[in-house]
Amino acid sequence: MFLDELKPLFQQLSQHPISFMGGFVSGALRLNLNDDPVKSWLNQQLGSNANTSTTTQAHNGKSNGPQSITID
Fold this sequence. Notes:
- The protein has a domain at 13-46.
- The chain is built from three helices and no strands.
- It is flat, with a radius of gyration of 19 Å.
- The longest helix has 14 residues, at 2-15.
- It starts with a helix and ends in a 26-residue tail after the last helix.
- α1 (2-15) packs across α2 (17-28).
- The protein is mainly α and 72 residues long.
- 51% of the residues lie in helices and 0% in strands.
């Protein structure tokens, strides 16, 4: 039933209302948490580097732009 699917949503809302609403608002406004104004504010709220995550990507010498492929 529809209410059973929303049960985890209401559990998180009741357990952590402030963080839930913050996540909801950032999702509704489509804010990227890695952009500078939001990231610096989160770092101030959580401490020096509590929210930083490093991701490594293999570029193989190519940029992130469009790439051409050939199909035989």
